[in-house]
Design brief:
Nitroreductase-like; alpha+beta; oxidoreductase
């Protein structure tokens, strides 16, 4: 049975106020994306770093495809080489250029016997190949299904079911090594074109935690027990097109979940603290932590040392048929 809900509708003036608030906040989002992204042209270091990451990812996955042919992605490879040249000239070598150069080396090796003229690419590799060598890699590697299964086949359902949103913590410091390991795990999250736009900005001093949690409306009754708080962000400077306008939220959400699982794997408790706010509240947090304008706040994650015994919400999951739609028929009329 369906029909209109019996709740009274807001008045016209109330609806107008709600609409105006929505438009004002949406416009702020649009303006931030326009100013931060490299729509039209790369304008700063992060924009160019992002374009390099996109270019090297294109070459990596192209070389990994079955039946990859000599000369594939040559235009992208030339652009990548030019971007590396520009980046090093303006900002010097860094991790991104090192990975990109290793990728171009792999690309040259793949095409070594093709007879294709890759002189411009080779010149960039020869010019900058030794500019930074810290062991970072690029290109492709061969793995086996057996190795993937051996390392990946854990009882993940049991692991996931053992994770709870924790709202009770011991008054003990969180080991820095555990925080670092959780962030390393979060870095393994998928990201669009492997751009890796996300950061975990973390505070463990009680006074700092208190100032941050005071701005978040969801930690009452336990915020003062937290051993640390992470603010997960994603940098809009790494995005280019209008169709990518929501991708920072998607990548940031995956990063945040992986971080929470990383804390769980370290034997720590954690709780997601949402940052669903209007821009006036967002601006207060930005001023407090001196957050660059290009970074979006995705969520907060509170964490700490688990007590020996505690109560948690049941948080019963819905039946599987609510979440799974398998092989639904497609529309014959769709084009």
């Amino acid at each position: 049975m369906s029909g209109p809900m019996p709740e009274p509708r807001p008045s016209s003036s109330q609806r107008r106020e709600l609409f105006d608030t929505l438009v004002a906040n949406t416009w702020r989002d649009v303006r931030r994306f326009w100013r931060s992204s490299f729509t039209g042209a790369a304008r700063n270091r992060e924009n160019l770093r992002a374009r390099i990451a996109i270019g090297l990812h294109f070459l990596e996955y192209g070389s990994a495809l079955e039946g990859a042919k000599a000369g594939h992605g040559q235009e992208k490879a030339n652009q990548l080489a030019a971007d590396i040249d520009t980046f090093i000239a303006h900002f010097g070598p860094d991790a991104t250029t090192e990975i990109a150069l290793r990728t171009l080396e792999s690309y040259l090796a793949f095409n070594d016997e093709s007879g294709i003229d890759l002189g411009a690419i080779r010149a960039v590799v020869e010019r900058h190949g030794n500019s930074r060598k810290s062991g970072l890699r690029g290109g492709v590697e061969t793995v086996t299904a057996d190795d993937i299964r051996r390392r990946g086949m854990i009882d993940f359902m049991s692991f996931a079911e053992a994770r709870h949103s924790i709202r009770s913590y011991k008054n003990e410091p969180v080991p820095a090594s555990s925080i670092e390991q959780a962030v390393r795990i979060a870095q393994q999250s998928p990201s669009s074109c492997n751009r890796q736009t996300c950061r975990a900005r973390i505070w463990t001093e009680p006074s700092d935690i208190a100032r941050i949690t005071a701005l978040q409306n969801g930690n009452r009754g336990f915020g003062d027990q937290l051993g640390g708080i992470a603010i997960i962000t994603s940098d809009l400077a790494h995005w280019e097109h209008a169709h990518e306008r929501y991708q920072a939220w998607i990548d940031g959400g995956m990063f945040a979940m992986s971080f929470a699982y990383g804390l769980h794997a370290e034997g720590l408790g954690a709780v997601m603290l949402n940052w669903s706010v209007t821009h006036d509240q967002d601006d207060r947090l930005r001023r407090l932590i001196d957050l660059p304008e290009s970074e979006l706040v995705i969520t907060m994650v509170g964490f700490g040392v688990l007590p020996d015994r505690l109560k948690v919400p049941v948080s019963q999951r819905k039946p599987l048929d609510y979440a799974l739609v398998l092989d639904a028929p497609l529309s014959a009329a769709a084009r």
